[in-house]
């Protein structure tokens, strides 16, 4: 499986320059006290990984991957692992930069706020991965883009509806007992949703014909 | 001699095409040429062997093992070249080597880089900068660099110029000698197969029309070229198919020497695989 991961990471190396530029922009904006764009880099890493699906599809890699040992299973697993690795690696770099920016500007580091922002970002990117990957494996990248647009659109509409007609503070109060466990809860939910997403994608790919 | 590949009663139905009870076997250390016109079912058969397509009926055994239940074990020892290009074109041969090291237990980097030098392919250039022929060479090199026991090659020489084709065919032959590898090779370029294939399996419209040794086909079969009057004298049991051309008849016979002994018709030529394909597909039986 290492080979499949190496192949996916090799495919995104041409994007490292773009990521470097984004990192510089992020640091510059942070030092100038402009808006916090730390969420962009991890999100970009997922988007870049999604672009590898296009290359795979365009070059018929998927059919070829099945001819390799354990190809049906490992190519899907590798895609998830490579993506998670990318998200965590980029998030870690961004986190370090955030600490440096915070220290450079105020001579103190607001660990809690930075960590909360970054964890929220990681959770958000994992959420994108969770929904996008099974849709991509089922329908391909092009249709998946429309799918994700519909999902986001639906979530926004639903959110708007709920905030207008439902008293969300009731839910907040009901879940207040979890306040001290949110960190663990976030990790458990993340692991569960990514694992579930992987199982669905693996099942879809195991039945695919090319 | 054991069979490395056995296909029994392979059937697969699509809306507008079907593989119908395909059966053939490839003995160890042999090259089988798999011929047929476009859309005859060559690629579909190879895809079924590789489990790229599913929901087919029949039995496929590779190295004596079921291709669906022993997938990993089998694929460690198979080298594959598919009809379409299959490496993401932003990768370099160096990336391919790095990835394959983590995929095949027997991956031989030294052999891979030797082949790259032999075929004049640069290891650090993205595949997108390669010509079609260079891409095909890279695919072939990758199929060979883990010392496979069986090569499944779907149109491996298409897009190559005659010199590159000759190089590739030489490599296939040398691999066969050194590694005791068996090869199933589908190709439109039947002249290549006449030189290297031990067996020819001919598929048309999803059915196997013919499966013989190449020697038997090229030495025993013949094409009779005759007038209509001469054709009328030939008994139905003495030919397989015939074609009516503008001024003459072409008749496919199974045993040209026996035919010559029986009939007084001057032109009985040796057959080429191209002739065979054309007359088997376009010809009539009676």
Pattern of helices and strands of chain A = HHHHHHHHH
Shape of chain A: globular
Annotated CATH architecture of the largest domain in chain B: 3-Layer(aba) Sandwich
Radius of gyration of chain A: 19 Å
How would you describe this protein?
The complex is a heterodimer of chains A (210) and B (286). Chain A has helices at 2-12, 16-31, 40-58, 61-66, 71-106, 111-139, 141-165, 168-174, 182-206. With 210 residues, chain A is mainly alpha-helical. Chain A has one domain (2-206). The longest helix of chain A is centred in the middle third of the chain and has 36 residues, at 71-106. With 286 residues, chain B is an alpha/beta fold. Chain B has 2 domains: 3-214, Rossmann fold (3-Layer(aba) Sandwich), CATH 3.40.50; 221-282, no CATH class. Chain B is 35% helix and 28% strand. Chain B is built from 11 helices and 14 strands. In chain B, strands 6-7-8-3-9-10 form a 6-stranded mixed β-sheet, with helices on both faces. In chain B, helix 6 links the parallel strand 7 and strand 8 (182-186). The chains are: A mainly alpha (210), B alpha/beta (286). The interface between A and B is medium-sized, with 30 and 34 residues.
Key traits:
heterodimer; A: 210 residues; mainly alpha; B: 286 residues; alpha/beta; Rossmann fold; six-stranded mixed beta sheet
Summarize it.
The complex is a heterodimer of chains A (210) and B (286). Chain A has 210 residues and is an all-alpha fold.
Write the layout of secondary structure elements.
The complex is a heterodimer of chains A (210) and B (286).
Chain A: H1 2-12, H2 16-31, H3 40-58, H4 61-66, H5 71-106, H6 111-139, H7 141-165, H8 168-174, H9 182-206
Chain B: E1 3-13, E2 18-27, E3 31-35, H1 42-49, E4 57-62, E5 65-66, H2 71-75, E6 78-81, H3 93-101, H4 109-118, H5 132-144, E7 150-154, H6 162-179, E8 182-186, H7 190-196, E9 199-204, E10 207-213, H8 214-220, E11 222-226, H9 228-233, E12 241-244, E13 249-253, H10 256-262, E14 267-270, H11 273-282
Parallel strand pairs in B: 3-8, 3-9, 6-7, 7-8
Antiparallel strand pairs in B: 1-2, 1-4, 4-5, 9-10, 11-13, 11-14, 12-13
């Amino acid at each position: 499986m290492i080979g499949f991961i190496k192949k996916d990471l090799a495919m995104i190396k041409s994007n490292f320059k773009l990521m470097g530029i984004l990192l510089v922009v992020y640091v510059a904006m942070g030092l100038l006290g402009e808006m916090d764009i730390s969420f962009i880099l991890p999100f970009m890493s997922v988007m870049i990984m999604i672009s590898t699906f296009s290359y795979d599809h365009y070059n018929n890699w998927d059919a070829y991957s099945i001819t390799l040992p354990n190809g049906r299973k490992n190519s899907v697993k590798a895609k998830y692992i490579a993506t998670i690795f990318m998200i965590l690696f980029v998030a870690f770099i961004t986190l370090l930069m955030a600490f440096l920016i915070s220290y450079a500007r105020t001579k103190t580091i607001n660990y809690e706020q930075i960590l909360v922002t970054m964890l929220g970002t990681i959770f958000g990117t994992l959420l994108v991965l969770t929904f996008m990957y099974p849709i991509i494996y089922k329908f391909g990248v092009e249709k998946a883009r429309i799918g994700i647009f519909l999902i986001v659109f639906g979530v926004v509409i639903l959110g708007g509806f709920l905030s207008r007609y439902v008293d969300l503070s009731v839910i907040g109060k009901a879940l207040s007992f979890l306040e001290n466990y949110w960190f663990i809860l976030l990790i458990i939910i993340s692991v569960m949703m990514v694992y579930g997403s992987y199982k669905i994608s693996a099942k879809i790919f195991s039945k695919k014909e090319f | 001699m054991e069979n490395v590949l056995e296909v029994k009663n392979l059937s697969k139905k699509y809306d507008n095409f079907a593989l119908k009870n395909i059966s053939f076997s490839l003995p160890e250390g042999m090259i089988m040429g798999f011929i047929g016109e476009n859309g005859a079912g060559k690629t579909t058969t190879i895809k079924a062997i590789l489990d790229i397509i599913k929901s087919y009926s029949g039995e496929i055994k590779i190295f004596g093992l079921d291709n669906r239940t022993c997938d990993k074990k089998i694929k460690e020892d198979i080298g594959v070249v598919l009809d379409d290009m299959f490496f993401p074109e932003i990768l370099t041969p160096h990336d391919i080597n790095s990835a394959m090291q983590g995929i095949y237990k027997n991956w031989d980097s030294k052999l891979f880089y030797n082949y790259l030098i032999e075929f004049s392919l640069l290891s650090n250039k993205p595949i997108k900068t390669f010509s079609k022929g260079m891409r095909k060479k890279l695919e072939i090199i990758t199929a060979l660099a883990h010392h496979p026991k069986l090569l499944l090659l779907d149109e491996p020489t298409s897009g190559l110029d005659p010199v590159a084709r000759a190089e590739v065919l030489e490599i296939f032959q040398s691999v066969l000698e050194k590694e005791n590898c068996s090869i199933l090779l589908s190709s439109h370029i039947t002249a290549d197969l006449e030189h290297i294939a031990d067996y020819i399996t001919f598929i048309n419209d999803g059915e196997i029309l013919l499966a013989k040794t190449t020697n038997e086909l090229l030495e025993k079969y013949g094409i009779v070229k005759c007038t209509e009057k001469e054709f009328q004298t030939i008994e139905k049991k003495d030919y397989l198919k015939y074609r009516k051309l503008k001024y003459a008849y072409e008749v496919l016979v199974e045993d040209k020497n026996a035919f010559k002994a029986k009939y007084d018709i001057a032109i009985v030529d040796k057959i080429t695989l191209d002739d065979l394909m054309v007359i088997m597909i376009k010809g009539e039986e009676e």
